[in-house]
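Researcher: Here's a chain I'd like modeled. Treat it as a single chain, no partners, no ligands.
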Amino acid sequence: MTLVARCWWLLAGGALVLATPQRTGLTEAPRLAAVYDSILNAQFDRTDAALAKTCPPAPQGACQALAAEAVWWQILIDSGNRALDRRLIDLAGAAVAANLQWTRREPGRAEAWFYLAGSYVPLVQLRVARNERLAAARDGNKIKAALERSLQLDPSLDDAHFGIGLYRYYADVAPLYAKFLRWLLLLPGGDRVSGLREMLLARDRGVLLRGQADFELHQIYLWYEGRPRAALTLLESLDARYPANPIFLQRIADVHDVYFHDLNASASAWKRLIDRAREARVYDAALIEARAERKLRDLNARRGEK
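Model: Modeled as a single isolated chain. Structure tokens:
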């Protein structure tokens, strides 16, 4: 067997990455981070144009993953509306297919595996929201495997630690039915401490997922860590950075109400959101104004006000 033939044989078997210098980090990370920031700021009317300007020079698979993520945030803002579910499924499916092809063309390219993982994320988020637990668990394991591969190829890819940390954390703290699913699917177990540590590492060192990390961490601090003050700090930071996204100020109002029992602070947050909606400074202003007014009426009733 010639040397060239041997190299190709080993590569096909997954035992060797070609001995040429491998790229590290994320290509055009600042451009992609700017698009992600616009998504977190609920500027969805600009997403398609921003992605078209970004990819190329950024990898097309990255933009396809972000396109699906943008639809997820629209769904999250109006989670009871299923009109966008099919669009998210189609976009995420196309992103998965494109990035799978990329990993086959360049199995030694860490960011290909990273964006493959990212392509599955909106699907998992949607399936969790729609109580499709088995499918969510299966895809969650695919995310973890792809991210672990990306870190094997490029240990400097700090953003990849976030998804792995999230998996490990929730695999440890999950309720019994979720742990049964994990056992049924032969999925690896979790570690709450190391999972949180990895998420914080990604938040501090990552270039793409800092805003998303803050959002996920605020939920963990509320639901599992008993740290509502830390969660509120993260939400206030998110709202300052992304004021057009109503979710963050809504969550601030809820935290003041549910965790601190401060009805006045909660009312103040809802009033601020109403003002933004009336001035068309938030996404889907009519929906958000009606929602915030309803919440404020309920809150005022509890405070004994008309």
